[in-house]
Amino acid sequence: MTSRIPRDSRLRLVGRAPLAAPVRTVAEGRPRRPAPRPPEGTPPPAELARAARTVLAGAAALARWSAEALRPAATGPLRTPPPAPRGHEGTLSPAQAGKAAAALGLRPAEVRAHWDAARLAGLVETHGGHARPGWRLRAWDRDDMAVLRGWVALFDAWSLFHPAHAESATPIDPTAVAEVVEAMPQLLSVLQLSAGTAPREELLDLLDQRITELRDARCELPAPGLTVPAPAPLPELFDWALDRLAGVGALTLPEGDGGEIALTPLGSWAVWVKLEQICVAAQSPAGNIEQSAEDMLRGCVRLRPGEARAEYRAWIAARTVGTAVQELLDAARGDDALLRQLAFEALRAVGAPAEPGVREVSADLPLRPYALLWLAEQEGGDAEDAHALLTREESTWLWIDTAAALNDHGDTELLVRHIEAAHQPTIPALLDEVRAAGHPLTVQVLLALAAAHPDPALAKAVRRAAFQVHTGG
After folding, report:
1. Where is the segment annotated Disordered (predicted)?
2. Which of 8-22, 124-138, 428-442 has the lowest mean pLDDT?
3. CB of 231 within 8 A of CB of 302?
């Protein structure tokens, strides 16, 4: 019998198909929940976008200035200083901050705050020692939804934002900060549900109660003989959180110690959106909002892409960004290739606030290919060009991992088509590199490919490669 696919045929490169695209679910026949209406008095999107542009006006002006002033050549990237310590990549040097301050009529501290906001909102994208204008900057004056998404990204990352007047603030215990960050969503929800305002002392009491609940839930007991440091004063931590939320345009603060704290229209709208996402998840058949990251991802396997993204957003909205990112990365570290794929799909729903966590795992082999592609995508890179960032070994590892995910997903058609997405020019070259990759699921992937492929000659070659890997030959 003559093979329909010659053994040494050239392979065509095709784009990756989404894992869940061909799956049909019982949800297709379910009536869709009507789009919820914002609370009465919420400004229309165009007005909210104008408010977001006002909040980020300084960041947008700095991003535009940097697009010209820091570019060494007409087509080159923006130059930021040499690589900074971990966690400070892409920051402006004192000399660059001084130039921007002189050009824009700002203080250097204000320049650093605006640069911080520009990065968090996606107006400037950084990679290593380079920065470049983000796609949101190009759409800033014409696309209201791009502006709102940029502001929401800044709002989600409020704890990372450093206002200009906070330069000389006393350092605060990171553990205490993490507790406040975890407790603040409840306070913002109370504000939104109480007409957007509440007395400062009432919110401070609520924060104290919430932190106590979180500590009790963790049941953390100090080791015998270990001295536990006294926590930072709660009013100081509360002021720290309020200062940053006001800095991103979500709150207005009263003068002095008393008075009412109020959500801005932007802040009220953003909190309402997140509460709606939680309600959608609670009403969904999957009901994943209370699940761990691993169980949530498994619950989304059979959902269509749009439904899965809604589940991701609702699950993320019910947690602090840092907690959600860490849980997703922990789920991705396991042996399940399908969960690894879905975890990075969920991280796309987090967006820019997930960048520090993703960058931190970019040196770990199982996650490195996914992390590099995710970071390139966040920086506005083309999906096809992004694959050039991977070495041949990393590309082969990713190819095997994706094939394992497709096999777990039970989609034999996509599994067969996946052969065409390999970067090797011939089938023998592909099998040689697959055998040498050292992926723990290589044998299972090759056997699944052999069983699914309609070409007997190719299937035989794949089975032979699986046997060689299994026997160490």
Report:
1. 1-46, 72-101
2. 8-22
3. no
Answer yes or no: is 239 within a domain.
yes
Contact between residue 418 and residue 403 where contact means Cβ atoms under 8 Å apart: yes
Cross-strand bridge partners of residue 130: 79, 127
The domain total for the chain is 4
Q: Same domain, yes or no, for 246 and 293? A: no
Strands 78-79 and 260-263, sheet pairing: unpaired
Q: Are 122 and 59 in contact (CB under 8 A)?
A: no
**What gap in Å lies between CA 273 and CA 279, rounded to an integer?**
10
Picking from 91, 223, 112, the residue whose alpha carbon sits closest to that of residue 165 is 112
User: Is residue 314 included in any domain, yes or no?
Assistant: no
Taking the CA atoms of 142, 144, 149 and 153 in sequence, report the sign of the dihedral they define: positive
Percent of the chain exceeding pLDDT 70 equals 76
Phi, psi angle pair for 124, to nearest 5°: -130, 135
Statement to judge: residues 191 and 291 lie in one domain: no
12: its two tokens? 């065509």
Residues 252 and 273 in one domain: yes
Q: What angle do CA 394, 134, 58 make, to 5 degrees?
A: 145
How many residues are there in the chain? 473
The predicted structure's pLDDT at residue 289: 77
Residue with tokens 């695209």: 21
Which residues form the domain of 118?
45-144
| Of residues 402, 395, 414, 383, the one with CA closest to residue 445 | 402
| pTM (2 d.p.) | 0.60
Q: Residue 263 forms beta bridges with which residues?
A: 251
